[in-house]
Amino acid sequence: MSLFDVIAMDADDTLWHNEHIYRQGRIVLIRLLAQYGSPEAIYARLFQIETQNLVHFGYGLKSFTLSMIETAVEFSKGRISGDDIQELIEQNKKMVASEVELVDHVIETVSQLSTKYPLMLITKGDLFEQENKITRSGLGHFFKFIEVVSEKNSETYRHLLEHYSIEPRRFLMVGNSTRSDILPILELGGHAVYIPYPTTWQHENAELPPPNRAGYFKIENISLLPDLLRQLENSGMD
Amino acid sequence: MSLFDVIAMDADDTLWHNEHIYRQGRIVLIRLLAQYGSPEAIYARLFQIETQNLVHFGYGLKSFTLSMIETAVEFSKGRISGDDIQELIEQNKKMVASEVELVDHVIETVSQLSTKYPLMLITKGDLFEQENKITRSGLGHFFKFIEVVSEKNSETYRHLLEHYSIEPRRFLMVGNSTRSDILPILELGGHAVYIPYPTTWQHENAELPPPNRAGYFKIENISLLPDLLRQLENSGMD
Asked: Domains in chain B, ordered, with CATH?
């Protein structure tokens, strides 16, 4: 018998590149506000406003765009033009329609693992956007279960595990966000594999667990996941 | 044995009032654009832009606010001020935080039915917003299953029914939108109860089925639902 009932994976910046799409938006904002402040100051204020707005708007591109518009109005002291505001909205539409670019080795790894484990995709954010990306990624059929959630904390995961009747210790989550994919899983007594992503959004960074923390593993890229799983299964772990 | 495995209900403008929140937004927009056009013209253009933007943004308040901003920029030929744009964003935050006002008779009806049937809440729109409303409505615990979907068409419902292993003819859906709650269910061979809402959003109106269409029922308010179900169960229906 396998050690795990389900292997779960994050999507944004784990299965496909996502952060660069937001970066394109920030570049447009910085260009539009060039006369009002430095790129660093604009970026820092945008991040503050995004963080404050999470409670009003949640995650995702529409939320991001509203925060960009709010930053533009504030930074320009209301002098931003209607056309510039419209450019931010058009930028949002482009971002929504951006090609879904898979991270290297994702297809072969996911395809291989799907023959051995039931896979679950757990992604946080805007339902409409995430469903679109799942469809366009072409990866949907590898995943037996797909869950879009509005926040990834230990409560969300506990609820999901209960819903699927999975014991935490028989659950393994893979992702690039220490805050969303790793720490809440370890808190519940599950297993978590951290795959760093070079430009993970600032909000998702939390302190890493110590390397010897029970249930915690780190690999450099997703192609190393099948080997890690094989080692765990062979060792009987625990 | 009961005729139905599940009684499913729409939420916005079926369980709680929703459309008036959007109306408040439209009133602000019409005030801000008063010098540029008539309320009717502004409303009509907003509806066009909202409809066009569904494919980019999906449903929900953030999508609505982006469409309001787009309408404001276009209608004012770019002359809308930054402060006015910011007012639309602040209006969005107010709308998100609006009190959830239940429709008359909802609590007693849902409470009563939940002792007899497994209830499912199926709501379309923004995951973050809908989860917030479900929590604040205090109704969540009456529903055995809660599903937030990005669109309500026959494909969505077919998928849901498969997921829960429910035969369409043993499924009954209750809602105020002919387009989203009634027609797709009848198409699948399920049962649908239409409860008109005085100000249903224009987008949700589709032609009503003929009154004698198999599986289709109409009641004036939700307090009549238990009686209708009793009649159906007693008649053995079909």
From this structure: 6-16+100-235 (3.40.50.1000), 19-96 (1.10.150.240)
